[in-house]
Specification:
Order of helices and strands: EHEEEEHEH
CATH topology: Alpha-Beta Plaits
Number of domains: 1
Number of strands: 6
Helix content: 10-25%
Structural class: alpha+beta
CATH class: Alpha Beta
CATH architecture: 2-Layer Sandwich
Distance between the termini: 11 Å
Number of helices: 3
Shape: elongated
Length: 113
């Protein structure tokens, strides 16, 4: 089991979700976060509004997957998040020690689904 964490541009969220659904990845947690990469938060134009300062709006996705869904998940995120601009984001993959479904108390890969 793996935990996939992706940091993407806010305007790419819908495209990433569509690509994940096509890959049959439906369990996703989405958070709005602030951060910056190598550009150190330089001023950007986002949806017609000038954004400046050290921290820019980003979207954080957290997706728990069984091992056989790891590559389709990563490929879906890349396909949906990639643009011709800098700052498309990052994907982090962590080992997931345990997963427990609260309702049924199932554990491990069965709990992920």
């Amino acid at each position: 089991m793996k935990l996939v964490i992706a940091i993407i541009q806010p305007d790419r969220l819908e495209e990433v979700k569509e690509r994940l659904y096509e890959a049959e990845v439906n369990l996703i947690t989405v958070s709005e976060v602030l951060g910056h990469g190598r550009q150190k938060g330089v001023t950007e134009i986002y949806r017609g509004a000038k954004e400046s300062g050290n921290l820019l709006r980003k979207i954080r996705l957290e997706i728990a997957v069984n091992d056989n869904y790891l590559e389709p998940t990563v490929k879906a995120i890349i396909k949906g998040a990639r643009s011709d601009e800098i700052g498309n984001g990052k994907i982090f993959i962590l080992d997931l020690k345990e997963c427990i479904r609260i309702r049924t108390e199932e554990r491990g890969p069965d709990a992920i689904g």
